[in-house]
Fold:
Amino acid sequence: MGFDSVMALSIALCCLKGGVGKSTLAIHIASALHGDGHKVLLVDADEQRTAMTWANQAASLGHDAPPVVSVTGAALAKTMLSLTEGYDVIIIDSPPRLGVEARAVMAVASLIVVPVTPGAADVWAAGHTVKLIEEARALRPGIKAVSVLNRSDRTSLAKGARQGIEALGVPLLDATVGARVALGEATLSGQGVCEYAPKSDAAREIRRLTKAMLAVLSAKSEVAA
Structure:
């Protein structure tokens, strides 16, 4: 699989609030793509360095994992262009705050994915993120954006969050991710959940989410499922 553009398909996990599971999703999406044979690079643009810590754990335990690089600062967009040649898909774990890094991530992303967990504060934060996406679209009208309900359950709170997300005007993917223990266990072990527990609900949900994101991009580029 390959693409004609200098920049590979780039999927950025963005939310201007911490604690929504952005880094965890980025890690397991990248690992799932890697396991399926894609040439994937995971870019850690979050100052907490969760993805880099996970990559170091994977290396120390001898697990097969996608390459991870740490990129920060105002020159993030330019730096990424020099790093990403030869990859098919780039997964970006963006910083959980407004700043030059968040704006730079949106300057290069083919698709922005906004994770939202059930709760008013997270829906409000998603609204701020959507405003930043709209600003980025003023410069790059072709940016695609979707939201995903993370750590979802069957409570009325999750139902309310879903309604709040849909009101923001960013499509909500049908592929939700539950509050799965396996995701945390896999992260601690330096593995992707599709490797750690391939038959688990968590692995099934990550695969479904990954497929849904690629489907959003399919109108621009052909990506094998």
User: Anything to note?
Assistant: DSSP finds nine helices and seven strands in the chain.
